[in-house]
Amino acid sequence: MNLALHVYEDIMRMTENLSEKYIIGYGASSTVYKCVLKNCKPVAIKKLYSQYHRCIKEFETELATVGSIKHRNLVSLQGYSLSSSGNLLFYDYMENGSLWDHLHGPFKKKKLDWTTRLQIALGAAQGLAYLHHDCSPRIIHRDVKSSNILLDKDIEAHLNDFGIAKNLCHSKTHTSTYLMGTIGYIDPEYARTSRLTEKSDVYSYGIVLLELLTGRKAVDDESNLHHLILSKTESNAVMETVDPEILPTCTDLGPVKKVFQLALLCTKRQPTDRPTMHEVTRVLASLMPSPAPPKQPTPANLPSSQLPITKVPCYVDEYANLKTPHMLNCPSMSTSDAQLFLKFGEVISQNSE
Prior knowledge:
Elements: H1 8-14, E1 23-26, E2 30-36, E3 42-48, H2 53-64, E4 77-81, E5 88-92, H3 99-104, H4 114-134, E6 138-140, E7 149-151, E8 157-159, E9 166-168, E10 175-176, H5 188-193, E11 195-196, H6 198-214, E12 219-220, E13 223-224, H7 225-234, H8 254-266, H9 277-287, H10 315-318, H11 335-345, H12 347-350
Antiparallel strand pairs: 1-2, 2-3, 3-5, 4-5, 6-9, 7-8, 10-11, 12-13
């Protein structure tokens, strides 16, 4: 069924005039509803408040960005409908809500193991890398946060909410714009200078990594997560902040430490010191557990002591010693990866500069 053919009156009928019982979320300028279409397919309907001029701009921005691009880690826009009481955007329905829901909200009882958290981090990073490096013009999301990372039935991450996204031509290094975003995630340099670059998204993404690692909110009352991690880093106690739900599902804390280092690099004060999202995805992919090799049948006439030994790549061994790059010789890791991790090793002592 082509959602573009759905007119406003059809949606009103199927949702009982957008009854409150169909609400699944709220935004600063919108309400999100769940609607089951005639073909039994569920969709998410985002209604932007019509009384604000800003909402018209956000509606047009979403159509111009996510309406013209496709990626497995971005929400897919299926259509829209126009009305004087509020324009509607139709998106794929995400069965598992947002990352924020799982870390801090109604889905918190569904515990996220370490591998799942890594997979979510990688998926969100791949979506951002696509916006920054594969779109023309480049797209800066401008509001990366855990509530804008939606999870489908397989817990795969999808970036959401492009209402304040900005395009950046390849010939430009930045764009000057008034400050927008969410407290706790906003790049301090963007806040100070109003100069927006892809590295502003990288900073926000680094805060999301810290949420995944600690289970804490970016801002909670008067507590700022990034400031907390920096203070713990100075006293070499950052691992004390690891979410207790991670520990039973992580046999080796080495990769957890690497993701902490990655988050610290993403949130460096100077944007030029932060990695690109391509670099972030490469590092996270290298930390993902390798799939178990299929069992090989044992030849009946060959004693087990004479069977060939197959060495399975071990990422723990790969990154066992950041100070000895000659040891980082696993085939799955390039020289540039090794250099990148050496750089991460220096972040701990320099991040507060």
